[in-house]
Write a structure and sequence with these properties.
By secondary structure, the chain is α/β, with parallel strands linked by helices. Helix content is 52%, strand content 11%. The structure holds S-adenosylmethionine. The site of S-adenosylmethionine (SAM) has 18 residues, from helix 14.
Amino acid sequence: MSERPTRVQPARQVAYDVISAVRESDAYANLLLPTRIVRAGLSPADAGLATELTYGTLRMQGYYDRVIAIAAGRPIDKIDAPILDVLRLGAHQLLSTRVAPHAAVNESVALARMVGSRSTTGFTNGVLREIGRHTPEEWRQRILAAAKNQDDELASVSSHPVWVVRAFRRALEAEGRGAELEELLAADNVAPRVNLIALPGLADAPEGSTPDRYSPPGFTAGGGDPQALVEANDGRVRVQDEGSQLAALALSRARPILPGERWLDLCAGPGGKAALLAAEALTGGATLVANEVVPARAELVRRALAPVPLDVEVWERDGTTIGASHPEAFDRILLDAPCTGLGALRRRPEARWRKTPRDVAELTALQTRLLDSAVDALAPGGVLAYVTCSPHIGETRGIIADALDRHDDLEALSTAEVVQQLAVERLDLADDVLHAQLWPHRHGTDAMFIALLTKNAPAEERD
Ligand SMILES: C[S@@+](CC[C@H](N)C(=O)[O-])C[C@H]1O[C@@H](n2cnc3c(N)ncnc32)[C@H](O)[C@@H]1O
């Protein structure tokens, strides 16, 4: 008689399906989860549970893997991948939630029965019972004791890869704020608030909402479904991180807009900053071109721009070629560069396990080519904003220092001053006035990096 399949509680089933799709087919949890929740017809409470289980398990996967290896008495690469997913989900419930231990173990065993062989149910049961025999604090101490060095300790308990811990430390130390490392790592493991924007001149924050601390058009809703608010305002209210808002506003508000200015968003997909720039361009009498090389993402840009009554051209070109095809054609350029996204780990739970130092090398080469193209496309006297949602100094200060070295006509502007002047409240920024680096733990934003640059007119024109 077969013991298969016992029904698993639907929220856990959805969480398991998403976690295994992330592993098997490189799915993105933030895109897949909402569709799985709808398909399973989960109640709001179960949807909340599925979200917590999925995001929590994926974020803390590195930590749980160390716990599982000890409890199982074998390295995790000796455990079948589907069973490892079951164990990760079970470990999360036992160590980080209030789910009753017997429910966490029984549901995990039922899941193991569905996805593994008969022998794996006993193994799953044994490993999870062993995990449940110790308190979360006891596990923390055991994991710390097994760490190889201080960086490995931080990496293990905060569930980050060691190379990311080191990259964050270097970025904080570059600001003289290395002591904030643990706070930053902890902030990455907390779900970000849903932040919104009322596009300037086109919508207002609704009554009862809480204005953002820094971004003038930013707010959080007092409750209810943010998506419903977006729909009720026909897209003139959007979901957008406060740091992203500040990055786009740093460009549009760096100086007063002269009517007829030509603006370019070089890497615009999916279009969040392009929508804000379009609203700002509309108010100031400027024009905007939004460029995005991936056609499907260019389509998202068109959708994002639709609520703004400005005729924005959307191009689908390789941004590295626009400097040559349109030399000195734009007065303001946003280069929101493709990057590792290490500054947005809060909202992309699996991203920290996917990125590698090799990605940094590939991306910095592309960032340099895009920045060179943007410099060529910038009119003398114009403003260029180089932005990343990564604080990795190879992608931030490194790119800017190298560009300033190679382009004699390029000059850094006082970015920090611009950002302070436009912000509602004063930000706690590093002393370096030429960049603004935002942080989740200090500002409650993604770790956005912003550097404003200008291009001097050639010497003979200035004489
Ligand atoms: C960080 S995202 C931009 C986010 C966007 N500014 C927003 O706020 O919604 C970078 C974008 O650059 C695009 N991209 C990558 N390489 C590019 C290239 N060579 N030319 C133009 N766009 C590129 C990516 O497809 C991605 O959509």
